[in-house]
Structures are given as C-alpha cells and as structure tokens.
Design a protein that fits this description.
This protein is mainly alpha-helical and 316 residues long. The chain is built from 14 helices and four strands.
Length: 316
Amino acid sequence: MMSMDWFGLINNLKEIVKVLKRYKKSLQGVVVESTYNWYWMVDGLLEQGYKVHLANPAAIQQYKGLKNRDDKYDAFWLAHLLRLGILPQGYIYPKSLRPIRDLFRRRIMFVKQRTTQILSLQSMIARNKGVEQSASAIARFRDDFINQMFDCPHLVSTARHQIETIRFLEKQIKDIEAEVEGIVELDKAYQKLLSIPGIGRILAMTIMLEVGDIGRFETVGNYSSYCRCVKAQSTSNGKKKGNNNRKNGNRYLSWAYVEAANHNKRSCPRARKFVERKTAEKNYTVAIKALANKLSKASYFIMRDQTTYDPSLLFG
C-alpha cells in the first residue's frame, strides 16, 4: 500500500497507475480508503489488474505514540493492517449496478423532500385555518380549492408553490420507479421479502439494491447493525459509558426499514400491539425503530434461508 499524496500526485488515474506500475509484480494489494469519492480509483485499479482492498476508516483503530502523523505514516499503517490480515474492509459494490442504486437513492431524496413540503403545508393550514389535512387529502387538492382556502393572497401563493413542488417531486419519483423497474427485476433471494406486510416491490427493490449479496453478512447482528437498527452505545458493567458512531452503516437501509415499520404496524395487528406497548414504555420514535430492528432481522433470515414471513416468530 502506498499513499498517492506521499508521491505528490494529483487525483489522476493515469499518473497513479504510472507510479504503481514499477511495483506491480511485488504488490500484494492496494488499499483505498472508503471516502465519498472512491469509485473512480477502485474501478480504475481493478481494471488494471490490481488487487484492491476498500478500507473502512470508521472501523480502523488509530495508532498511538506518534508525535507526527502524515500521509506517509497513514499508508504504512494501512499496509501493516493488511499484512496482519486485520484490515477492516468495506464492500466493493458491483460497478454495473452502482448507477442504478444511485438513481434509486435519488428517489429516496425526492421522497424526503416531498414529505418536507407536505408537512410544511399541513402546518400552515393548521396555523391559519385550525383544521388538519392528511397527506392524501393534500395530494388531491385542486387549484380552485387552493385559491379559496385562504383569504390572504400571499398564503394562497405559498400553498400553490408548495402544491406545485409536491406534484413535481411526485412525478420525479414515479419516473425513477418506472425507469428502474424497467431494467431491474427482484432477484430470487429478495422476492420473499414481499411476504412481509409493509414491504412492497419498491421497498424490496431498495433493500436489494443496497444490500447486494446478503452472504457478505455473517450474522443477523451484523446485518441489523449495518441497517442502523441497533443502539450505538458503549456499556460496561451494566452502565452506559458513551455513545458510539450511530452513523456507521447504511442510512438508506435505515430509512427503508423505518418506512416498512410504519406500513407494517398499520397492516399487522401484532406489530400494532408491539408499537403501542413500546410507545407506552418509551415513545413512538423508539417504538418504530424497535419494530424496524425486528423487520431487519426477519428479512435477513428470509433472504438468507429463502423462507416466508412468520409473525409468530417475530413477536412470539
């Protein structure tokens, strides 16, 4: 492993390959840190025949005792971890599916933005009219109804702009779904996710595109942790010692299972009772997260063992 900054190189694949070429026969592997922009480097080196390891910086323990730390020492440390066989590594998602996954991630972004606009409009209506409007009702608002809703033209203008934004985002969401469904089919390992109440084709496809190979998770705990469905805290002797990094894992899977939990509690009586009991003990947010954790664990076994959803196993 060598640091490109150590050689004073810019982020240019040709220059990097040129430097590595003289060491190619003796290189056991090249470590690339999993930053936000690793695609081009990993893809380029793999195409050139190098064995690439994608390092997970969040899981790497920093070395102690050095007064001076720079890219050179970082490179030596990564090489040392690789040589010992203890380098924490990330998953190199298949290049061919990466653009489709990223497109579907934009759908999630648009869904969140649509929700923000709906909540904002609901709040404005409640403040000024003293009535509650559901999200489904807002989606059905007609232009003439919006014009008559408020007696102030500025409030009418605000409502119209938000409705137009909601409609625009809705179209983008539907267009992305149609595009992805036109080129991607649910793999056999993920089709049985549809047996879980609350998980339809879109959520199942989201999970499939984010997970990739379910076999890369050795245990159900590894999977639920990757889905950000477990507590990020450190305890000792039954006492809390601090919070770990709760951002470790996949935020898109975290969103997907929370969405599944919200749908699941509406269609599954046992899930609804579970959420009601947890809400009484803690609060609604904790209850939904707890249900999301259960669904992530259930889906792990469904995908791994190709079985169907059984609520009796989930809720006892």
